[in-house]
């Protein structure tokens, strides 16, 4: 009898507990949003670029020794403009997950930057300091060009938000193939005196600029970039067509601006 009473009491307690539990509200499961990791810019890339270069050079022409005539010690202005196109390869490293990117890029391009200027006139009338007879015609022409251009640059950029855009500054070494020539003609006909000079060199200098790069689908990205380059100076010596004590020198400057667009393939899966 006692066992029956104990069993009944136990069943009563369980029934009451189940009823109370059924009446209590159920807690909803806690939902945690998945962590979205923005894609990284870290990795190697390579691509192609095309653009346009322009600049206005100030080149000084002199006779050696100097002559007191209007064609000596004259500054000429060559507009060194043209096409540029080539390829680049580089590496980016995402310094922090949400902002800064550092990298290095090397590129080499064919360039067709050309410029020229000319002048002409006649010598003034004679005088105690004039070494040439007055009224003699003269002409002067100069040409210069950049045939190719290569750079090795560091890059430091900032990539906001979802890392679709990379805004960067860049600068470093610039190397290019430059060429310059000039011709000065004094007089006319068979008796004219002609000084000619030309020179071509590989010149090293510097470059600085900036740009913006945007991610496209399938690890491709496109960029718009500006660079200022300075390859220094090239001196051309002009020698006369007949033995004379006079030579000419022209100091050619090679510097300018480049704007180009590029397409890069990134060798990463993020």
Radius of gyration: 37 Å
Task: Please give the alpha-carbon distance between the first and last residues.
Answer: 76 Å
How many H/I helical runs?
A: 1
Kindly state the percentage of residues in helix: under 10%
Q: State which percent range the strand residues make up.
A: over 45%
DSSP summary, beta strand count: 10
> What is the CATH topology descriptor?
Porin
Number of domains: 1
Largest sheet: 8 strands, antiparallel, barrel
Shape-level CATH architecture = Beta Barrel
Low-confidence residue ranges? 4-22
Principal-axis shape: rod-shaped
Would you tell me the overall average pLDDT?
85
What series of H and E elements makes up the topology?
A: HEEEEEEEEEE
- The CATH class is Mainly Beta
> What order do the strands of the largest sheet run in, or round the barrel if closed?
1-4-5-6-7-8-9-10
Q: Structural class, from helix and strand content?
A: mainly beta
Question: Keywords for this structure?
Answer:
mainly beta; eight-stranded antiparallel β-barrel; 270 residues; Porin; 1 helix
């Amino acid at each position: 009898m006692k066992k029956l009473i104990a069993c009944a009491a136990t069943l009563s307690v369980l029934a009451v507990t189940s009823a109370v539990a059924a009446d209590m509200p159920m807690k909803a499961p806690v939902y945690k949003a998945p962590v979205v990791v923005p894609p990284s810019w870290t990795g190697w890339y390579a691509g192609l670029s095309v653009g346009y270069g322009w600049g206005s050079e100030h080149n000084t022409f002199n006779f050696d020794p100097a002559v007191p005539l209007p064609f000596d010690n004259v500054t000429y202005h060559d507009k060194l403009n043209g096409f540029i196109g080539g390829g680049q390869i580089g590496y980016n490293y995402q310094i922090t997950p949400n902002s800064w990117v550092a990298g290095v890029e090397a590129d080499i391009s064919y360039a067709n930057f050309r410029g020229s200027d000319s002048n002409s006139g006649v010598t003034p009338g004679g005088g105690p300091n004039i070494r040439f007879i007055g009224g003699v015609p003269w002409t002067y022409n100069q040409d210069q060009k950049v045939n190719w251009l290569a750079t090795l640059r560091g890059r430091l950029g900032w990539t906001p938000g979802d890392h679709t855009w990379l805004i960067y500054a860049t600068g470093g070494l610039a190397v290019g193939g430059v060429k310059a020539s000039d011709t000065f003609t004094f007089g006319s006909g068979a008796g004219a005196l002609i000084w000619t000079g030309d020179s071509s060199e590989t010149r090293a200098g510097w470059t600085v600029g900036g740009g913006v790069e945007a991610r496209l689908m399938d690890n491709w990205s496109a960029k718009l970039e500006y660079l200022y380059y300075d390859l220094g100076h090239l001196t051309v010596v002009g020698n006369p067509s007949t033995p004379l004590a006079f030579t000419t020198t022209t100091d050619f400057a090679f510097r300018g601006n480049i704007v180009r667009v590029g397409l890069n393939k990134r060798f990463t899966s993020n």
